[in-house]
Predict the 3D structure of the following.
Amino acid sequence: MINSSKGREHWANRVGFILAAAGSAVGLGNIWRFPYMTGEHGGAAFIVIYLIAILLIGYPLVVNETILGRASQKSPVGAFKALAPNSPWWLVGALGVFTGFVILSYYIVVAGWSFAYIYKVIIATTTQGIDHAQVFKGHITSVWEPIIWQAVFMLFTISIIASGVVNGIQRWSTILMPILFLLLIVLIIRGISLPGAGAGLTYYLKPDFSEVTGRTLLGAISQAFFSLSLGMGVFITYGSYLKRKDEIPVSTATIVGLDTIVALLAGFAIFPAVFALGFAPGAGPGLVFITLPAVFAQMPFGLIFGVLFFVLLGIAALTSAISLLEVVSAWLIDEKGWERKKAAVLMGLVIFVVGIPASLGYSVFSDFSFPGLKTDLLDTYDWFANSIFLPLGGLLSAIFVGYVWGAKKAVNEANRGSSLFTIGKVWVFLIRYVVPVMIVVIMAAGIYDTFIK
Ligand code: PHE
């Protein structure tokens, strides 16, 4: 039986939606990807561009997707089918489900590293003279160990999704998100109180725009999409678990605010410590796995803070991974009438298998390098998902609402149930003109700089 809106599970309360969606947004993107992207793209200048992208593209699109979900009471494929029957627009939903598939497949690889590092960091911080780059390399180039951790992480994810929207997603987000905030605050206090932390703060807060290229711009919007879980239907899906009278503008602004604050705070937890202990910020994806353990090894009580850090990373990853698996499972539940448990288990297993090559990209498939990208397999999954599929999904859903379904309908839908502030002309202008133009221009510039220049 296809789920009707009446039989649909809904968030138990407003905080449930906010914490679940913030849990999706806050993840490896904030704590692992944002700091190394900032480090690779020159520090504060990248942050300024990122913040502009969040304001002009991120928030408007989060509202956009949430409306589509609440109005249709369906996950992405069904949402487009319900709002534009007998048209090919459902393919945008399908693109979202596919993207979720790809992202989750490599997301669990990095999440698995984080789980492994909860104990690896103990060895790394207590062994004299250990080479941290070697420890990390040793871990990711061993064939089985990362795959086993990847499997463990996937089992956690599957079991939460199998338990349902309120008992699974909402319950675990409500438990884990406050712990995450607390851990982050502890780490920041430790970082900025180290002697010499000031150099890191300067690097992090003083913009230098001379290094900004098309690649930087594409890097910043890909980061905005990834970090906000945007462009693949997480907000359509989570929005579909809102009741028709639930508020949207303020809740979504809170979610975007929380995500941005956590990313910025992660920088405060990392860069001051990195600089205080004389390390370089541009270590790339290895920043939190190589540079940070080295930092912890040299700081008083580094062992404890090291373990706390990787627990934090694991928690953040888990509340994001569940949203990715939820989008994929909800497609089968809503469209094909599957039972939730069956959908979660089967999709979880298939995605796990698809992710194995990304993990083996450091051992068995280490010769692989995508022309132009010059990166390993995992980074290639990441690049296509975040620099192409997510912005494309965002672009198409903006065009859909702005020109096909109708901006007027969208504004009415957005404002139903809202009190504190409402969405209006500015939002419509952003969705119809600013968002599409910026995405197209930045994607073109970034692709040109990456492959052609
Ligand atoms: N937003 C998550 C993070 O920052 C990743 C994610 C992307 C989750 C897309 C869902 C959808 O880690």
Notes: The mean pLDDT is 91.
